[in-house]
């Protein structure tokens, strides 16, 4: 793991290190993804079945592609009841948090005879991608589905890759059922995204696709954007911890490792004004890595994309953090709420020694689908807003329009749009 003393060179080094992980730098895969997307668009289910056999080593047909009620019932028999209750508690907390984000239609009427407003409408059909195969991510189901349910989306379609026996992980099925997913299909990868974007004989077309996936999923979402909306093109996960001498090195190291274990491209960075803390965290990283199950992934992630940066002050740490715009930001200082107002760019902010990043992944309530690779400078976490659309409302009577007619006509003529001007003129020709 890199141990860096802060300078302008540190800015550039960290920025390059993080940018190298971005999905935009995986152009060599784009041609493969484009071919898959076109095949599914043109051949529908036939292409889906071919890719299932090729990539997932599973044979499916029109009857077995969709998850049945019997399969969901069987999943409940296989999942420990305690875990089912934990899923329900997580779902409840996530739902309650997102209910505070709801937007409502509004109207503003004036004495002059005009009414203006905004109509808020849920997106009708949404597709949710959930990673599968060896992976089990019930938390991903909850985080992607619950804001859509709060927004009152009419139809939620989930896709997830099956195992070689054509089965979806039972925990994933239980989470989907608890959250109210309407339909579940056994398909993953770029082909699943294409199926949602264009529809097949079996899988319905949706209007928006959300959910995380590997580089093929990310690039497929990029390829179909415009045909449908997407949440984001997510890159590898990341955490940045701002800490001073008051932080517990054992906690800080554990939090860095909790993010590094996602995959070899994950990034875990500590920025501290205490060299003593930095050295202690470095020791803890070695000690804790040794007994964790994903040791190989942790070591590669930390060696390639991890860093401990020692700065002169917490203000310098904030400056560096705002440049990185991390997906997850932990502030482990004496007064974290004093640092908070200085933060401009971060996906989710965790304050204090007892607000670790995994709390946000599972049980806190805010969404864990967050902007990565510096996109927190202009993107926000997944929310209810992602599942609604807004229409402007305009209603004027003759008198109210009359008050603005000259302004509109002159404006239109200035743009040489005489038909625009005429649209107003004809309404007042007899005056």
What is the topology?
Blueprint: E1 2-5, H1 8-19, H2 30-43, H3 45-55, H4 69-78, H5 81-99, E2 106-109, E3 114-122, E4 125-129, H6 138-150, E5 155-160, H7 170-179, E6 183-186, H8 189-198, E7 208-210, H9 215-224, E8 229-230, E9 238-243, H10 249-260, E10 267-272, H11 275-289, H12 295-305, E11 307-310, H13 314-324, E12 328-332, H14 336-339, E13 348-351, H15 357-362, E14 388-396, H16 398-414, H17 418-425
Helix pairs in contact: 2-3, 2-8, 2-9, 4-7, 5-6, 5-7, 6-7, 8-9, 10-11, 16-17
Put the structure in a nutshell.
The protein has 431 residues and is of the alpha/beta class. The protein has 17 helices and 14 strands.
Oligomer: single chain
Give the low-confidence spans: none
How much helicity do the residues have? 40-55%
CATH superfamily of the largest domain: Nitrogenase molybdenum iron protein domain
Largest sheet data:
6 strands, parallel
First-last Cα distance: 80 Å
Overall 3D form: globular
How many domains? The number is 3
The CATH class of the largest domain is: Alpha Beta
Number of helices: 17
Q: How big a fraction of the residues is strand?
A: 15-25%
Describe this structure in words.
With 431 residues, the chain is of the alpha/beta class. It has three domains: 2-22 and 235-365, Rossmann fold, CATH 3.40.50; 27-230, Nitrogenase molybdenum iron protein domain (Rossmann fold, 3-Layer(aba) Sandwich), CATH 3.40.50.1980; 403-428, no CATH class. Helices cover 45% and strands 16% of the residues. It has 17 helices and 14 strands. A six-stranded parallel beta sheet has the order 1-11-10-9-12-13, sandwiched between helices. β5 (155-160), α7 and β6 (183-186) form a beta-alpha-beta unit. α5 (81-99) runs parallel beside α6. The longest helix is centred in the first third of the chain and has 19 residues, at 81-99. The mean pLDDT is 94.
């Amino acid at each position: 793991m890199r141990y860096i003393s802060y300078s302008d060179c540190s800015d550039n080094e960290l920025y390059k290190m993080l940018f190298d992980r971005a999905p935009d730098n995986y152009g060599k895969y784009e041609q493969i993804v484009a071919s898959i997307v076109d095949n599914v668009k043109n051949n529908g289910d036939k292409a889906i079945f071919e890719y299932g056999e090729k990539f997932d080593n599973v044979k499916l047909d029109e009857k077995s592609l969709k998850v049945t009620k019997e399969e969901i019932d069987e999943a409940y028999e296989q999942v420990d009841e305690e875990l089912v209750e934990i899923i329900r508690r997580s779902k409840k907390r996530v739902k309650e948090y997102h209910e505070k984000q709801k937007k409502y239609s509004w109207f503003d009427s004036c004495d002059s005879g005009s009414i203006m407003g905004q109509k808020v409408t849920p997106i009708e059909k949404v597709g949710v991608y959930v990673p599968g195969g060896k992976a089990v991510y019930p938390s991903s189901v909850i985080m992607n589905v619950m804001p859509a349910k709060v927004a009152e989306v009419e139809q939620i379609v989930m896709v997830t890759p099956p195992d070689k026996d054509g089965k979806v992980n039972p925990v994933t099925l239980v989470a989907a059922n608890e959250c109210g997913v309407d339909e579940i299909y056994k398909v993953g990868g770029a082909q699943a995204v294409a199926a949602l974007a264009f529809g097949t004989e079996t899988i319905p077309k949706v209007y928006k696709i959300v959910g995380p996936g590997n580089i093929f999923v990310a690039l497929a979402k990029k390829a179909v954007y415009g045909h449908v909306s997407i949440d984001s093109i997510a890159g590898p996960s990341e955490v940045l911890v701002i800490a001073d001498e008051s932080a517990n090195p054992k906690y800080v190291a554990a939090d860095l490792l909790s993010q590094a274990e996602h995959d070899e491209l994950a990034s875990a960075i500590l920025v501290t004004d205490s060299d003593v803390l930095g050295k202690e965290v470095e020791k803890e990283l070695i000690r804790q890595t040794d007994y964790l199950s994903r040791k190989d992934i942790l070591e590669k992630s930390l060696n390639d994309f991890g860093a401990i940066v020692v700065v002169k002050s917490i203000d310098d740490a904030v400056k560096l953090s705002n440049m990185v715009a991390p997906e997850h930001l932990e502030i482990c200082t004496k007064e974290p709420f004093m640092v908070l107002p200085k933060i401009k760019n971060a996906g989710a902010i965790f304050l204090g020694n007892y607000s670790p990043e995994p709390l946000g992944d599972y049980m806190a309530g805010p969404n864990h689908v967050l902007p990565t690779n510096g996109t927190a400078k202009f993107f926000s976490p997944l929310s209810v807003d992602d599942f609604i659309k807004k229409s402007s409302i305009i209603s004027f009577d003759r008198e109210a329009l009359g008050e603005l007619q000259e302004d509109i006509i002159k404006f239109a003529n200035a743009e040489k749009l005489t038909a625009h001007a005429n649209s107003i003129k004809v309404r007042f020709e007899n005056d």
